[in-house]
Amino acid sequence: MSILVTGGAGFIGSHTCLNLLESGYDVFVLDSFVNSSPESLARVKSICEKDKKPKRDLHVFKGDLRNASILKDIFTKANEINKKIDGVIHFAGLKSVKESVEKPILYWDANVGSTINLLNVMQSFDCSTIVFSSSATIYGRSSKTKLKENFKLKPINPYGSTKMVIEKLLNDLFVNYSGSWRVANLRYFNPIGAHESGLIGENPKGIPNNIFPFLTNVAAGNLEELRIFGKNWPTIDGTGERDYVHVMDLAEGHVKTLEFLINNGPQCLSMNLGTGKGTSVLQLLNIFEESNSLKIPHTFVERRSGDVARLVADNSLLKSLLNWYPKRTLNQMCKDGWRWQVNNPRGY
Ligand code: NAD
Ligand code: UFG
């Protein structure tokens, strides 16, 4: 079977491509490299070559998802070599909350415009299976209880709005095309860590916004200290609480979801992808220090605008439908993420 992975060179995409190849799928990637490097996919290939498993093909195309002709070329080429694309995992998009507030039109175009283009081309090539990268950010606010899929959606920034509207668009396709579409909206919580080889990992451009790459850069001495945003949140120790999930579990979750769609017929599913376990910033810091025998200089600063106290998944739907759940521990996330940083001090 062949799968098109949009944004496959990115952080989550590259780990998922590896899992797809190792699970026996041929993979076609379309990426503009606006936030990634082709080197990530070269490394995916080299990891596969070291494994003794039967090899599948990885085809990489450089281009923007808003460009219909390159998309059509990929589907056509796949047909010509008898590798018809059976499904799409759709990661491509812009993901900075801050930038989305400054440039909402860019975000609507890059995220929603590109998805409309993709869906049009998929339909014309009779491909109607899609796993979409949604986000816990669409729940909008924090909750004392774990977030369930049927909770009210109320995104508080343009990035979150684009994710919610794409979910709605995909639901419309399912409802209005007599149930031919197989759709899964995966609402990720906080992916961190890296592949255990230390060859692929997260490679943010400039100063990282997210806590984990910031932490590893402080540990490496590239940044002076971790600034903890707020110490009076209504959480266990006053610092923000999140549901951190190992990126390889996230990758595995995509392949399991894709197989669930293939085996279970047309539907439109929205599902949390998290561990169901909350961890505060201070707890994460302690586990990172203990796992890697390091000390991280840190200081407390004001709350970051737009932050919420707590985002933790109720992952019971995932467990019951897929008969699978993320198993890697925070200790593993911290060790694997630090190995990637140490082995690649300047990224790719
Ligand atoms: P990433 O930026 O590392 O990967 C996205 C990839 O898409 C990059 O390789 C980028 O070059 C590519 N891309 C962007 N716009 C494109 C376009 N118009 N055409 C072709 N390629 C394009 O991000 P990631 O962390 O791997 O996230 C993947 C997806 O998951 C994104 O849609 C993101 O919004 C979503 N998500 C991420 C997180 C997170 O914390 N990392 C959380 C929730 C949801
Ligand atoms: N934090 C700090 N210092 C930092 C960075 C973050 O204290 O330098 C804190 C934040 O206040 C928050 C926690 O660490 O409490 C996690 O923050 P991140 O920026 O790593 O992650 P967010 O939960 O804010 O957002 C991430 C992605 C979003 C996605 C969301 C889904 O960036 O795109 O997870 O849960 F939507």
For the biggest β-sheet, the strand order reads: 3-2-1-4-5-6-11
Strand segment count: 14
Q: Approximately how much beta-strand content do the residues carry?
A: 15-25%
Please report the first level of CATH classification, the CATH class of the domain at 2-193 and 245-274 and 315-326: Alpha Beta
Notes on the structure:
The radius of gyration is 19 Å and the shape is globular. 41% of the residues lie in helices and 18% in strands. The model has no long low-confidence stretch (mean pLDDT 96). The chain contains 11 helices and 14 strands. The chain starts with a strand and ends in a 5-residue tail after the last helix. The protein has a 7-stranded parallel sheet with strand order 3-2-1-4-5-6-11, with helices on both faces. A 3-stranded mixed sheet has the order 12-9-14. The site of nicotinamide-adenine-dinucleotide (NAD) has 28 residues, from helix 1, strand 2, helix 5, strand 5 and strand 7. The site of uridine-5'-diphosphate-4-deoxy-4-fluoro-alpha-D-galactose has 20 residues, from helix 7 and strand 8.
